[in-house]
Amino acid sequence: MKDKRFKRTLVTTALPYANGPVHIGHLAGVYVPADIYTRYLRSLGEDVIMIGGSDEHGVPITIKAQKEGVTPQDIVDRYHNIIKSSMEGLGISFDVYSRTTSATHRQMASEFFRTLYDKGEFIERTTSQLYDEQADQWLADRYVIGTCPHCGFERAYGDQCEHCGTSLNATDLIDPHSAITGNVPVLRETKHWYMPLDKWEPALREWILEGHKEWRANVYGQCKSWLDEHLQPRAVTRDLNWGIPVPIEGAEGKVLYVWFDAPIGYISNTKELLPDTWEQYWKSSDTRIINFIGKDNIVFHCLIFPAMLMAHGGYQLPENVPANEFLNLEGEKISTSRNWAVWLNEYLEDFPGKADVLRYVLTANAPETKDNDFTWRDFQARNNNELVAILGNFVNRALVLVNKYCGGVLPERGELAEVDKAVLDEVAGYRERIGDLIETFHLRDALKEVMNLARAGNKYLADTEPWKVVKTDAARVDTIMNIAMQIVANLSIAIEPFMPFSAARLCEMLLIEPMKWPQLGGDNLLPVGHKVSDNPGLLFVKVEDAEIEAQEQRLQRIKQENIINSWRPAPVAPAIDFNDFLKLDIRVGTVKACERVKKADKLLQLTLDDGAGERTIVSGIARYYDPQELVGKQVCFIANLPPRVFKGIESRGMILSAEDADGRLVVIGPAGAVRPGVSVK
Q: Residue 677: which region, alpha, beta or left (left: phi > 0; alpha: psi -120 to 50)?
């Protein structure tokens, strides 16, 4: 920790909603980066704590509870435990992981609101809000569904259209209706308390735009955009029966808005961890606060929460907010509502013992400056071609050779050759190089340098070829093996922030206690005579094709389910005259022969018995039918269309088919056998 202004560091991580498990987007955006950073500071010997917890209030939780017919408390209890245990399974090393339904949080959030209220920091406003008369309740934005005014999507929510991504107000929707009863809501007046963010705009502008130009471009740019458009008052209360009651008279039936309530959870969770000293981490100027978040939380953590802290007084503002961009899945935006995600708890079950593989892939592909994509094939390739073939390969080779040539005991070094000096000089530079990148939140590049250390070890063995030298110069082999094992020991330090389970496993192979970051780069980490394991095993193992195919098939099933579930009938075409319909001559024919059209993936050539002879029809159903399964089948066709030529084949008519929700074409025919040539009435 190079900035000597700070004696301690407080790391906070965005609070996940406890209405479902966490997925890889959450991990790549927030939790893995925060854990890497925190583990690094701990390894340096710094005073650092990492604070996390579940966000257990808000409309998504009440919606989930209503759908399942349980209470909101049932929902948050279930998912808080799932989230907490799966985070532990991935090695996310929170000092505390609490929840916003705790007694400590309820008290602190209430007191925080009351302090601002007593200081006159809120304004009261009466506004019109949608109300469901049948359900007898106010409708939060997520309880209103209608047609998006921007893209026409018919199931947009009142806060955002999931189809085009546009932020909305419930009153913007076309034909809005209640998600509870389906009824059309009415507008009623209601009173709420607002945080006048415009009052704090000058201070925020000075603090961010002038004081923190070193922040990531995406964070700085989004803040500047909001400030340039000027901040507006924002409601801090809402009409809801789930949440922290507004602690003033005249606010019965109202709770703290979740965006106001949740960030106070960072403070209350710190107090829960350190009831006597928590204020040192929030109110002392020699504390550095780092907020790890995703880009969808930039405005809340860089503008709104700091404005709350300024209004309250006495609290320190964050030193940095290293927000990541979004991680997509197989080319599509991750969506919890569509189940388009890789859920952490399921991953840990499907890939036991491979928590570090996921940590590695998410860091190597981290969306630090732009949205990135997770694919299962890339996951397999990075494991097999990098973790196994580079890092694991070097560790295994070094341990096998030191056991083979030296009986598993670290030998003495003799006179150093130039190749030895060069690799030791290179190793010595990694502590500062990797550390600088971590401290400036370039974690993807830091991981590349860790892998470069492993590459240096592989290159050293390839250059020195101890398996050849052993035949002529045993003393030289001792030197080579000593240096190789020193590189392995350095790797046990370097990989720990990124892959803690593998670091612990590597220490077991070396039969050592874990070492600390200041030791990284040393060339005598293992003393002469030290014994290593004579049966170390493999640090990483390959991921097989069958494992990846199973995950890809799961996603394909989900995609098909989403297509079917989101399907709606196409709008009915404009009315036509009945006489126009009668002009169509629709008949039944029996397929006598069928074959694929050459050089045309979509086309089949069918020969029909139409009752008066045979006719050829070319149809675009080749992707959905094997030619032989159509032979003998009766189909409906339009008989009086003018001939058309496809790929040199004259087609006399059109086969009728229905397009299912997944785009599959199903040929239409009579329910029972009829004579070829009969008309369809």
A: left
DSSP secondary structure, 309-372, as one string: HHHH-SPPPPSB---B--EEETTB--BTTTTBS-BHHHHHHHSTT-HHHHHHHHHHT--SSS-E
Domains of the chain in sequence order: 1-122+196-341+366-372 (3.40.50.620), 375-519 (1.10.730.10), 578-667 (2.40.50.140)
Distance separating alpha carbons of residues 552 and 376, to the nearest angstrom: 7
The whole-angstrom separation of Cα 415 and Cα 476 is 8
Does residue 562 carry a pLDDT above 60? yes
State how far the Cα of 234 lies from the Cα of 416, in Å rounded to an integer.
68
Q: How far, in Å, CA of 500 to CA of 358, rounded?
A: 12
Pairing label, strands 644-646, 634-638? unpaired
Separation between Cα atoms, residue 508 and residue 506, nearest integer Å: 5
pLDDT tens-digit map of 40-74? 999 999 999 999 999 999 888 988 898 899 999 99
How far apart CA 428 and CA 583 sit, in angstroms, is: 86
Quick one: the chain helix, strand, coil %, rounded to 5?
Answer: 45, 20, 35
Whose tokens are 């840990």? That residue is 348
Q: What's the pLDDT tens digit per position in 539-553?
A: 999 999 999 999 999
Closest CA to 278 of 291, 288, 286, 269: 269
Work out the average pLDDT over 251-255: 93
Per the CB < 8 A criterion, the answer to whether 326 and 334 are in contact is: yes
| pLDDT the model gives residue 151 | 87
Dihedral of alpha carbons 60, 65, 66, 71, sign: negative
* Residue 141 burial (10 A CB sphere; 0-12, 13-18, 19+): buried
- In three-state form (DSSP H/G/I as H, E/B as E, the rest C), the secondary structure along 494-538 is HCCCCCHHHHHHHHHHHCCCCCCHHHCCCCCCCCCCCECCCCCCC
pLDDT per position as a tens digit, 452-499: 999 999 999 999 999 999 999 999 999 999 999 999 999 999 999 999
Tens digits of per-residue pLDDT, 305-330? 999 999 999 999 999 999 999 999 99
One-letter amino acid for residue 497 of the chain? P
Distance CA 163, CA 173 (A): 14
Helix (H) or strand (E) holding 666: strand 665-667
Distance, in Å, from the CA atom of 322 to the CA atom of 438, rounded to the nearest integer, reads: 12
